[in-house]
Amino acid sequence: MKSYQLLVFFSVILTVYALLNWLLFSNGLQVFPQGTRARIWFIWVFWLLVSAYPMARVLERVWLSPVSDLLTWIGSFWLAAFFYFLLALLVVDLFRLVNWVFPFFHLLAGGDPSKARLVIFLITTGAVAIVLIVGHVNAVRTKVTHYNLYINKPVESIDKLRIVAASDIHLGTVIGPRRLGRLVKLIDEQKPDVVLFAGDVVDEDLAPVVRNDLGKLLLKITAPMGVYAITGNHEYIGGAASAVKYLSDHGIQMVRDTSVLVGNSIILIGREDRDRGRFSGMERKSMGTLLTGIDLSRPVIMLDHQPFNLQEAVDAGIDVQISGHTHHGQIWPMNYITRAIFELSSGYLQKGKSHFIVSTGYGSWGPPVRTGNRPEIIVVDLTFAK
After folding, report:
1. Would you state the pLDDT for residue 111?
2. 355 and 299 fall within a common domain
3. Among 99, 168, 183, 386, which is least packed, fewest CB within 10 Å?
4. Which CATH number covers residue 282?
5. 175, β-bridge pairs
6. Could you say which of 138, 170, 200 is where a domain stops?
7. Quick check: 364 pLDDT over 80?
8. How many Å is the Cα radius of gyration of the chain?
9. Hey, is 226 helix, strand or coil?
């Protein structure tokens, strides 16, 4: 993506973010009377929370430090709080509309409007805080999802293959040594033959990954047939070349618009992320080009980060496609939106002879909060024809 396009894109995002926060601020300010200490505290705390995430993203590039880490964590939680405060404001406005027709607000706080606003503010803040706490606990409770699939193709010397797959790890400040250590341990516990990462291994900025030496943990993954990965949109946002080199230097074979032979029998195709053209100016290869010279009598597994146009894989004769990207919305009710956008937002689908799996992802983008689903790793036990 060209520099001016990035500038316009992020300018629009920041403008919308600022305007929506101003909407929250102006409503919250009504709770606190003029000249009170509580009003001053509200103003300072609110705008610190709002500015924390943008400041952290900038600071990470010029001064990666405990200060940038703290701002990242504060700002990340605020993104989730911001979203749910907007939903709460919508609900309160609906109640105001009902109150205009059927007055009932006078029943709150003995009919005192200022006390009623304070009660609503405290209830809303408490509810959002509870959602964030529960959502954060849920975001670190990884589940293991199993699939048993049959492929009607013989494989010489192999009857079964165990794949352990993960997507959207988003290594960085939030997903650091502790979470990655848990992931490596969980992967090894499944005793995989091969490990596949379906994109977004790195969360944009590589600097926190390098500083925390996360690569040494990746080197601990044990898989006799290898560890493979593809790029996702976040690798391209942060600079794909540096992320790919770092992962390659730490035991992960990057499969970029090409194919490799796994176990001398099974074809693994790795597609570049579909946003490659937007960020680098170079489009990814077409499916037809990728399949040139491929022996389709062998089982064909494909990694494609964003699960768009599943029919293309069906028509191409792909046996299994593993994707991620969607996070299945991550934060409720965003899962309804991802369901509307993607034919398969999470889980399993068979179309024709092709099997599709979309993971909810292991990490999180932005808020370290999941309220729509749990993080997961995927275990796929493939059985082949005799």
Report:
1. 65
2. yes
3. 386
4. 3.60.21.10
5. 171
6. 138
7. yes
8. 24
9. coil
Round to whole Å and give the CA distance between 105 and 195: 58
Beta carbons of 125 and 89 less than 8 angstroms apart: no
User: Cα dist. 359→9, 158, 176, 326, 349 in Å?
Assistant: 28, 26, 20, 8, 12
Separation CA 174–CA 187 (nearest Å) = 20
Distance, in Å, from the CA atom of 303 to the CA atom of 253, rounded to the nearest integer, reads 13
Q: Which helix (H) or strand (E) holds 12?
A: helix 3-29
Q: Are 176 and 363 in contact (CB under 8 A)?
A: no
- Where among 138, 163, 197 does a domain terminate? 138
CA dist 374 and 360 (Å) reads: 7
As a whole number of angstroms, the distance between CA 220 and CA 197 comes to: 15
Distance CA 272, CA 277 (A): 10
Q: How far apart are CA 275 and CA 5, in angstroms?
A: 14
Range of 371's domain? Answer: 143-385
Tokens, residue 342 = 């993607």
CA distance linking residue 196 with residue 162, whole number of Å: 11
- Cβ–Cβ under 8 Å, residues 203 and 233: no
Do 150 and 133 lie in one domain? The reply is no
CA-to-CA separations, 371 to 124, 331, 343, in angstroms, rounded: 17, 5, 21
Class of residue 378 by CB neighbours under 10 A (exposed 0-12, middle 13-18, buried 19+): buried
Q: The tokens 């001053």 sit on which residue?
A: 40
Instruction: Specify whether 188 is located in the same domain as 73.
Output: no
What sign results for the dihedral spanned by CA atoms 152, 222, 377, 362? negative
Written as one letter, the residue type at 61 is R
Question: Residue 226 is encoded by which pair of tokens?
Answer: 């290898």
Do residue 246 and residue 159 come from a single domain?
A: yes
Structural tokens at position 131: 């959602």
**pLDDT of the residue at 378:** 98
CB atoms within 10 A of CB 181: 13
Read off the amino acid at residue 278.
Answer: R
Greatest pairwise CA separation for the chain in angstroms: 81
Total number of domains in the chain: 2
Q: What is the pTM of this model?
A: 0.93
